[in-house]
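check this one:
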Amino acid sequence: MTSGVAPMLQGIRVLDLSQFIPGPYCTMLLSDLGADVVKIEPPYGDPQATDGPLDEDGISLWYRIINRNKRIARLDLKSEEGRAVLRRLVAVADVLLESYRPGVLARLGFDAAELVALNDRLVHCALSGWGQSGPNRLRVGHDNNYQASAGILDVCGTIAAPATVNPPIADYAGALNAFALISAALFRRERTGQGAYIDIGMADAALALLGPEAAALAQPDYDARRGRGPYAGGWACYNLYRCACGGHISLGALEPRFWANFCAAVGRPDWIARQTEPRPQTGLIAELSDLFAMRSRADWIATL
């Protein structure tokens, strides 16, 4: 933010009914822009609060970070008293973000009609695993399940086996989509006065990250599979290599001039013409692996 300028979302009131990472990360971004966020937790709290590493008082450091600038309140929404409090909060809110499975909020007495009756200017964002419709909508899951169902794990790892991806990119992709669409809905509301309903599935958000891999399906001769694709370990010029110290180097010399510069720096000009060999470039990758294994990572960083 620019010094001396009011935060972009100053005066916007947000109710956060979510837990763990996706929803709280989205509302953290909103709060960073000046929104007033009230995070409503169940009586037992958010499990993220005790998911280490823990502070001296037993509260997770990450929980403190992701919920910075927020006010935390606990409500039992299965009780009439708790629902009455939430009705009053919804009536004066600008944004409601929740991460329940489809149908749960309605069973608590807050279906679409009730929310509109309480506040027809409300921007309601439902952030769930597989969205509000479709055959998977009622499945429970976490980030690795969303990654698996979207196909991300199928392009991560080696030819022999997939690898779990961390940070939890499906969680963050869903959170960023929610942040963008909530912001856009607030902008539209300024022009039209209309509220909005936003349906975001984290598996959908993860799938949207697979643009090049999805495009490759239209070209049977273009192999984008794990360990074979250009960004999945198939290219020697875009890969990870183990050094003599046990550390690793990430080589990202995609452009021909950068690859030529790299080959010159390591004294292997004969490799320059081999950049476009058919994938997977097993032989060339093995030669680079032998090279990097000769020196420590610090030495390679100094050279490259």
User: Anything to note?
Assistant: The longest strand covers residues 36-41. The beta strands are 13-17, 36-41, 70-74, 95-98, 123-128, 196-201, 238-242, 248-252. The two ends are 35 Å apart (CA to CA).
